[in-house]
Amino acid sequence: MEAKVDAVKVNVVSEKDRYARMEHEIKSFGNNAREKITIMENQLLDELKEVSEKHIEQLTADLKLGEMSVQMYGQQTELIDQILQSECDMDVYEMYQGCEAGDVDAVGDVDVKKRGRIARVMFRQNEEIMSRALDNLQLGEIVVQYDGMLNLWAAPLSQDTSNVLDLKGAPLLQDTINVKVAGDKNNVYPFDLTVLPVNGTDTVVLTDYNNNRVKSFYTRNKQRHHSKLQLGSRPWGITRLTHYQVAVTLMHRRQIVTVEVNPDLVLLSTITTHKQYWGITSLTPSTLAAGSDSDKCVDILDMRGNFLKSIKPIDSGKEIIHSPEFLCTTRTGNIFVSDSGSKRVLCLTAEGDVVFTYPTTGHTTLRSPCGITSTSTGDILVTDRSEHSVVHLTESGQFVRNILTEDDSVLYPHGVCVDGRGRVYVCTWYPDEIKVFPFSNSV
């Protein structure tokens, strides 16, 4: 008991030191946030000072010109009075011609006719954007771990939580979800999807590329329901942020939107980025990975869209990322990239190292790789649109088998994901549906 007491005393000291360090970190994050706000404030003040000084300078110049004009008009008036009192008609005529020519007016009008004059300076404050930015500001969170709990501190945000999926079993088509809903003006092109357990209700959320919408589908009281959120551009990739939030890329805009799923959809925020992104995945609760087709890279971003790092791996002197259209995060925090341009699946670390590529260079067996997901056991599922199949790879990138094919009514598959009950969800383009497959021993 004395030994335990001594151990507790040591633990108390170490914990106090750790709490002091955490307190310092919180204050440091707060100071950094305040410093950034102060920098933005000073930038605005400097800009205001510059334009205000220029404006006042222009007004002062106008004032001087006006005073000069008044003085010159006064002198001209005195001269006119003197000439009118004279008996010389020629002097009167010459004065008349001078007034008609507007010699004095030209002095005061030169600066007025110049371009680039400031008419008015205003301060435009967007309270909505500022309020949203403050609401989304995160200094961090206090995580309490109790005895017997699994330590999730600094763990990667897994996209799937299944621990009962038996990929050795035979697939069984359990459900088909028609993704065309009222108000759709165009054919539905379901690109990517994820499944969230919202308050115990499995909710499927997908991106409808052709109708500029994100949609959710769920069953309540044995009745199927849906929700739709209209966006200003075509959505592409989707990733789960929390059990009730997702992030979606808008491929034709430099934007990522965050959406609340409850299970109806509510737009939370619009994140402006410096590039257009396609595939997206959540690495940690505070970072995202997004694929750029134009820049041929995978970028690491924070939750405000700030660029942190760009990944452009090289193999044999050539860049190996071409079209990173679909991404997912592994249980170890690596990034899987489904690259339709190179017809390969890439496994990258967050630092940019290449873990493996499938298939190896020069040996292509994927014709059109699309959606990709990773299970809690590390297995990889990737869809092949042209081959009408879902390919099963091991965690190290070894081919196992095609677990779903055209014989399973999987035609032109795109997005794929796994839920917490061991079911595989696949977006198909013919027809436009979501097909749900449990496997044997996982129903």
Structural account:
With 443 residues, the protein is α+β, with helices and mostly antiparallel strands. The protein folds into two domains: 2-124; 175-438, TolB, C-terminal domain (Neuraminidase). Helix content is 26%, strand content 35%. The strands form seven sheets. Strands 1-26-25-24 form a four-stranded antiparallel beta sheet, with no helix packed on it. The chain is elongated, with a radius of gyration of 33 Å.
Quick structural gist:
With 443 residues, the protein is of the alpha+beta class. The chain has helices at residues 2-85, 89-101, 103-109, 127-136, and strands at 175-178, 190-198, 201-208, 213-220, 223-230, 235-242, 245-250, 255-261, 265-272, 280-284, 287-292, 297-302, 307-311, 314-315, 318-319, 324-329, 335-339, 344-348, 354-358, 369-374, 380-384, 389-393, 399-404, 413-418, 423-429, 432-438. It has a four-stranded antiparallel sheet, with no helix packed on it.
User: How many extended strands?
Assistant: 26
CATH fold node name of the largest domain:
Neuraminidase
Query: Segments where pLDDT lies below 50 for 5+ residues?
Result: 104-113, 148-163
From the N-terminal CA to the C-terminal CA, the straight-line distance is 51 Å
Give the CATH level 1 class of the largest domain.
Answer: Mainly Beta
Helix and strand topology:
Layout: H1 2-85, H2 89-101, H3 103-109, H4 127-136, E1 175-178, E2 190-198, E3 201-208, E4 213-220, E5 223-230, E6 235-242, E7 245-250, E8 255-261, E9 265-272, E10 280-284, E11 287-292, E12 297-302, E13 307-311, E14 314-315, E15 318-319, E16 324-329, E17 335-339, E18 344-348, E19 354-358, E20 369-374, E21 380-384, E22 389-393, E23 399-404, E24 413-418, E25 423-429, E26 432-438
Antiparallel strand pairs: 1-26, 2-3, 3-4, 4-5, 6-7, 7-8, 8-9, 10-11, 11-12, 12-13, 14-15, 16-17, 17-18, 18-19, 20-21, 21-22, 22-23, 24-25, 25-26
Helix pairs in contact: 1-3
